[in-house]
Amino acid sequence: MFVSNLPKDITNESLKAIFAEFGTVSSCVINPKNNGTWFVSFSNHGDAQKALETLHMQRKIQDQVMIVSPHVYRKENELKGTGGNS
Fold first, then answer.
1. Is residue 84 part of a domain?
2. Per-residue confidence (pLDDT) for residue 36, from 0 to 100
3. Which residues pair with 27 in a beta bridge?
């Protein structure tokens, strides 16, 4: 999942604890290209879906409403615009 609109000073441990309420978090890392946005992964897709439905625009952290959205994985060639679907 992609998580944004978070305080810049949020820690990995505190964010992981929020998502762990819904299941086993397999990874929780800050997006190196944009401080304040994170990628969170679950071991189980159902747990991820439950977290998405429960947290998106519903949970505040330091008066900021958390935005949670699915992360769409794309092949490298699709990102470069050289994919086969034209």
1. no
2. 72
3. 41
The pLDDT assigned to 73 comes to: 65
Whether residue 48 lies inside any domain: the answer is: yes
* Residue 8 near residue 36 (C-beta atoms within 8 A): yes
Asked whether residue 76 is assigned to any structural domain, the reply reads: no
Read off the pTM. Answer: 0.77
Q: Is the distance from CB of 27 to CB of 43 less than 8 angstroms?
A: no
Q: What CATH number should be reported for the domain holding residue 8? A: 3.30.70.330
**Identity of residue 44:** N
Provide the domain limits for residue 52: 2-71
Q: Quick: pLDDT tens for 9-33.
A: 888 899 999 999 999 999 999 887 7
Single-letter residue type at 5: N
74: Cβ contacts below 8 Å, ≥ 6 apart: none
Could you tell me which of 66, 36, 33, 63 has the C-alpha nearest to residue 52?
A: 66
